[in-house]
Amino acid sequence: MINRHMGRRLDRRDVLKLGAGGAAMAAVAGFGAGAAQAQAKMVLKATDVHPTGYPTVAAVEAMGKKLETATNGRLSIQMFPSMQLGGEKEMIEQAQVGALQIARISVGPMGPLVPEFNVFNLPFVFRDVTHMEKVIDGPIGTELLDKLSKHPTAGLIGLCYMNAGQRHVYNSKKPITKVEDLKGLKIRMMGNPLFVDTMNALGGNGVAMGFDQLINGMQTGVVDGAENNEPSYDSGQHYRYAKYYSKTGHLMIPEILVFSKKSFEAMSKDDQALIVKVSKEAQMDQRKLWYQREQESLKKMIAAGAIVNEVSDKAPFQAAVKSVWDKYGAQHKALIERISAVK
Ligand code: GTR
């Protein structure tokens, strides 16, 4: 597999060969005893679809520095940014088998695994960013992370959340100011049927595709555009292919940091607790970086030629996605009510 933007992409064999973390893990398994576990040096492999300098990448790197300091260099993080280990689907698979330890992904693809996460994926579920932050920082956020960690087959530990702003539609044809404007546009959506249904309900044609396939999809006209927050649009230089960026704000999906359950269970209780602690700090560290980056990205993309427009009346967009709420929300009524009760 070749990643056009990054040179050769690593395949699973490379990941296993590369695995400083994996080697340490093998040593741990060999020693078996708790004391040996507590001392084994481990390089935790982390990955992100975004490049170095992106808020999520920077926050996980800072987490690695904290681990190094707290353990005198025994635990550290090696970051593989920019989709070097594949898209989010591949990242999840590698974390499940312990070929990497930390994957920073969107809650988006988690819905099919832990259905409650689809509540965060419902269009217009949060009133605003403050509401979303209160939910992820509070008991509901913790409950959903625990659901993932306790899932019998997911093979992942849910560590923390991160901010990802609001998602807005962008395309190469025209600005979207009203819901009818989406008609006939092929818009790339994340790999979760809920999102394709959302775009279709809005009148567009939702096309499920990995983030790693998107530039190619826009270049070849398989899609006319996609939807994402300002920092993703800017850092992926998507304005080069789809210059109309319309602030539909239809989704506000938090990010999630997951840890390989296989790797986690091989670590000492103290190390596990330390990882949980630094990840909670990372949730807040990333937030500060996020707000700065959103502003910077907005300026950069406009300077690069993006044409940004506000969407003044969101009510028709909200009305159009009722079928999505009926299909994916009906079984989570109580959770939805709890979310809307968060003030
Ligand atoms: C970004 C998010 C990524 C990925 C991407 C996508 O906002 O940070 O994790 O989910 O969107 O659209 O696939």
In short:
The protein contains 16 helices and 13 strands. It is 47% helix and 19% strand.
Description:
The chain has 343 residues and is an alpha/beta fold. The chain has 2 domains: 2-164 and 254-292, D-Maltodextrin-Binding Protein, domain 2 (3-Layer(aba) Sandwich); 167-253 and 295-341, D-Maltodextrin-Binding Protein, domain 2, CATH 3.40.190. Helix content is 47%, strand content 19%. It has 16 helices and 13 strands. The protein has helices at 12-18, 20-31, 34-39, 55-70, 88-97, 117-120, 129-137, 139-150, 193-201, 214-220, 230-235, 261-265, 269-303, 315-320, 322-329, 333-341; strands spanning 2-3, 7-8, 42-48, 75-80, 102-106, 156-162, 167-171, 186-189, 205-208, 225-228, 244-251, 255-260, 307-310. A 5-stranded mixed beta sheet has the order 4-3-5-12-6, with helices on both faces. Strands 10-7-11-13 form a 4-stranded mixed beta sheet. A hairpin with a 3-residue loop joins strand 1 (2-3) and strand 2 (7-8). Helix 9 runs antiparallel to helix 15 (322-329). It is globular. The relative contact order is 0.16. Beta-D-galactopyranuronic acid binds next to strand 5. Residues 49, 88, 105-106, 108, 164, 190, 211, 228-229, 232, 255 line the site of beta-D-galactopyranuronic acid.
